[in-house]
C-alpha cells in the first residue's frame, strides 16, 4: 500500500528534501509532489530525483497527496495551513515536522476532525539516520499511521509517543545532534592538546561514537554495562571517567535535555 502513495511536501529544505529523497529511494511512496519558495531547491530536487519528483504550488502538492508533510519553519506553519486547507483531498492526513507546534494549534486551521500527525525527526535525516518520534490525534487511522511510519523509516528509526512527550523528544533527539557535536568537539580538543592531529582525532572520535552507538543498538547492553566493560580497576578509563564525574558531565547532560524540553514548552505557548 505505502509504495503506491503520493507524498506531498510543503517546504523541501533540509528535512523535507531529505524525506523526499529517502522515501523515494526506499520505495515507501510512489511519487513526491514538492513545493518550496526556493526555485533553485525545486530545480535541484527535480534534477536529482527524476520523474518521481514533481515540483508544484503548495495547493497542488496537497491536492494529489495521500500524506501531506508540512516542513517549513514553525512560524510559517499557520501560513502554509491557510494555503493548503482548501486543497486537502478526503482521506489524506497532514503531518507536521515543525518543532513546538502542537496539534491543538494545527487543528483549528484545518477542516473539522482532520487527521494530524506530528513528527519530531532530527538533522541526521539527511543521511538516513534520524531518530523520529511520531504522535497522532484521534482522527488518524492505524493504516495512515502505518504508512507514515514507513515513510519516516526510510530515513531512520521511528517510535510512537504520546503528544505530551513531544517536548522531551524535542529536547532530546531534536536538539541532540548539537549535544553530541559538543561532546565530539571536546574529545577532539583533548586529543589535539596531547599532540594528535585534528584530522586523525576527528576520524577516530566520529568512529568512536558510531561504534559505541552500534554496540548499544545491536546488543542488550545498558550504557552503564558498556562503561563497566571498558573500565579496568586502576586503569586509564577510570582516570578519564573520574574527570567527567568531577565536572558533572552527566548532570549537565540531564540539565540540557530538561532545559531544552522546557524551552520547547515555552515556545509552544508563545
Ligand atoms: N533542521 C533540524 O534539525 C530539525 C529537527 C527537527 C525538526 N525540525 C523542523 O523541521 C522544519 C523544517 O526545518 P528545516 O531545517 O528543513 O528548514 P529549512 O531548511 O528552512 O526548510 C524549509 C523550506 O521551506 C521553504 N518555505 C518557506 N515557506 C514556504 C511556503 N509557504 N511554501 C513552501 N515552502 C516554503 C523555505 O524556503 P526559504 O528558506 O526560502 O524560506 C525552505 O526551503 C522546521 O519546522 C523545524 O522546526 C528541524
Structure characterization notes:
By secondary structure, the protein is α/β, with parallel strands linked by helices. The protein folds into two domains: 2-166, Rossmann fold, CATH 3.40.50.720; 174-269, ProC C-terminal domain-like (ProC C-terminal domain-like fold, Orthogonal Bundle), CATH 1.10.3730. Helix content is 52%, strand content 14%. It is built from twelve helices and eight strands. It has helices at residues 14-25, 39-49, 58-63, 77-84, 103-106, 142-153, 166-174, 176-193, 198-218, 223-230, 236-246, 249-269; strands at 6-10, 31-35, 53-55, 67-70, 93-96, 116-120, 130-136, 156-160. It has an eight-stranded mixed beta sheet, sandwiched between helices. α5 links the parallel β5 and β6. The radius of gyration is 21 Å and the shape is elongated. Bound molecules: NADP nicotinamide-adenine-dinucleotide phosphate. Residues 10-11, 13-16, 35-38, 41, 58, 71-74, 76, 79-80, 97-99, 120-123, 174 line the site of NADP nicotinamide-adenine-dinucleotide phosphate.
Amino acid at each position: 500500500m505505502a509504495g503506491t502513495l503520493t507524498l506531498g511536501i510543503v517546504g523541501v529544505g533540509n528535512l523535507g528534501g531529505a524525506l523526499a529523497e529517502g522515501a523515494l529511494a526506499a520505495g515507501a511512496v510512489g511519487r513526491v509532489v514538492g513545493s518550496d519558495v526556493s526555485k533553485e531547491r525545486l530545480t535541484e530536487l527535480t534534477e536529482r530525483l527524476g520523474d518521481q519528483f514533481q515540483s508544484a504550488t503548495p495547493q497542488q502538492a496537497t491536492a494529489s497527496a495521500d500524506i501531506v508533510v508540512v516542513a517549513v519553519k514553525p512560524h510559517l506553519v499557520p501560513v502554509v495551513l491557510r494555503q493548503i486547507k482548501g486543497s486537502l483531498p478526503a482521506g489524506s492526513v497532514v503531518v507536521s515536522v515543525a518543532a513546538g507546534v502542537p496539534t491543538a494549534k494545527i487543528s483549528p486551521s484545518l477542516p473539522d476532525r482532520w487527521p494530524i500527525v506530528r513528527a519530531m525527526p532530527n538533522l541526521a535525516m539527511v543521511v538516513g539516520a534520524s531518530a523520529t518520534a511520531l504522535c497522532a490525534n484521534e482522527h488518524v487511522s492505524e493504516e495512515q499511521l502505518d504508512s507514515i511510519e514507513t515513510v519516516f523509516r526510510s530515513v531512520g528509526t521511528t517510535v510512537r509517543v504520546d503528544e505530551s512527550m513531544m517536548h522531551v523528544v524535542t529536547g532530546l533527539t531534536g536538539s541532540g545532534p548539537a549535544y553530541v557535536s559538543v561532546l565530539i568537539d571536546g574529545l577532539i580538543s583533548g586529543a589535539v592538546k596531547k599532540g594528535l592531529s585534528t584530522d586523525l582525532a576527528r576520524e577516530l572520535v566520529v568512529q568512536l561514537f558510531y561504534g559505541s552507538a552500534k554496540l548499544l543498538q545491536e546488543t542488550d547492553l545498558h550504557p552503564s554495562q558498556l562503561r563497566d566493560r571498558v573500565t579496568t580497576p586502576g586503569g586509564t578509563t577510570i582516570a578519564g571517567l573520574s574527570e567527567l564525574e568531577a565536572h558533572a558531565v552527566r548532570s549537565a547532560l540531564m540539565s540540557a535535555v530538561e532545559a531544552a524540553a522546557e524551552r520547547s514548552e515555552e515556545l509552544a505557548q508563545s
